[in-house]
Amino acid sequence: MKRFLFALSLLLLASQLQAEELKDLHDLPYGDHPRNVLDFYPAKSDKPTPVVFYIHGGGWRRGDKKFNAKPVTDKGISVVAINYRYVQNGEEQGVKPPVKAPLSDAARALQFVRSKASEWNLDKEKIGATGGSAGACSSLWLAFHDDMADPSSDDPIARESTRLACAAVNGAQVTLDPKPLREWMPNYRYGAHAFGLKNLEAVIADRESLLPWIEEYSPMAHVSKDDPAIGLFYGGQEPVVGSSPKDPTHSGIMGVKLAEKLKENDIEVVLVHPGVKDKKYRNSTEFLIDYLTK
User: Which UniProt keywords are present, listed alphabetically (predicted)?
Assistant: First the structure.
């Protein structure tokens, strides 16, 4: 018995030392493209930590993974912040539609992180995605999409799951389908570049032929009853469906419509916008810390 307890104490000490020795990692490659890199900020812990998975915004055309991880790591949650191919990189490589490049990169980066769970002292079951604007859209796409793991793959990373424990996002686009978007907001004009087109009118004109792509890369199209808890955070004007807001690209109108669909599917959702009083969470970080440490 004494030998067993001594061996157990050594294992616990080794685990603690391993966790303490983990250092921040920057620009670690997870794929072949120069933008397939991530930063890792470990939280100190003697047990596997939850993870905040950050996807930056910028319309899938610009932006960088810079992230203030300390408020999260101080709560015992590790952080991964990723770069990914822009849509213009996808166009250069002949990716169709171009939006497949940033979204598939986000999925691959998530699988890569899970493959590092033992080495990085991470809890695979507690990963929550976050981001703003296009990064928010990417986060929701991961949250709702069926698992993209390939159990039969020779690549161990590809066998890892792409499912999330939760997502909390800021100013998210919830669909790339111009039909409902223009019904919700007559002045909506964002998203044509996702399909390699110049404006939303071109998407509308060719919507029927584009519909398979629209459905595959629109988060809202993948909502199902097994999806995780979602936090939706919007600024700007109080959302009024059918109006033309000053910033339709990031309007809470989209959050209102997505929240309706999530509630119809019995998915836990928190929606925060300027018209909401008695907010349980002031921001997406508070939501993630609460849900990932429960």
Answer: Hydrolase, Signal
